[in-house]
Amino acid sequence: MNACLLDLAVKCLDPRLGNEIPLPAAATDGSAGMDLRAAPDAPLTLLPGESALVPTGLAIHIGDPGWCGLIVPRSGLGHRQGLVMGNLVGVIDADYQGPLMISCWNRGNAPVTIAPGDRIAQLLLVPVARVRLQRVEEFAPTARGAGGFGSTGMR
To answer: Any known ligand binding at 91?
Structure first.
């Protein structure tokens, strides 16, 4: 099966992009996201518990309201180094055209240094479903019903 191919307008805000800092790209043919790289002026060290907004040096314009961008963490960085996204997931609306910034948070026990060009997050493009709210008095019954958080157990 072939993946959906979309055109994405990209504006380079930092002259290092495409030269010293590679443009976003998928790491493998099977990668769901494109790696986003850090573009700070100089290496940035986050002490345990610290956070910073790190520039990527680029802006995107999706344009089609049927799509949005999600900026998600790179799992290896969170697990091995404690570097995660401070807002967990960033949503990029189709009409946003400003700079992409990554909220980085060091949740680990040791300092983490982010250098220009480091891969610090991923950009996914996902379809957006538009909904119409339909007011009802009751829901159709289900096996779960109104059982809340944890109601289905662990095993």
So the answer is: yes
Burial class (CB in 10 A: 0-12, 13-18, 19+), 110: exposed
- Domains of the chain, earliest start first: 9-127 (2.70.40.10)
What does pTM read for this prediction? 0.85
Say how many C-beta atoms besides its own lie within 10 A of residue 77's C-beta.
20
What is residue 149's DSSP assignment?
T
Strands of the chain, DSSP E: 9-12, 34-37, 44-46, 51-61, 67-73, 83-85, 90-92, 99-106, 112-114, 119-127
- 83 pairs with which residues across the strands? 106
Distance of CA 44 to the CA centre of its chain: 20
d(CA 79, CA 91): 22
Annotated ligand binding at 151? The verdict is: no
87 annotated binding-site participant: yes
Find out whether 75 is annotated in a ligand binding site: yes
Which residue reads 């180094």 in tokens? Answer: 81
Averaged over successive runs of 10 residues, the pLDDT of the chain (155 residues) comes to 80 96 92 95 97 97 96 83 86 97 94 96 95 94 77 73
Q: What pLDDT is recorded for position 1?
A: 53
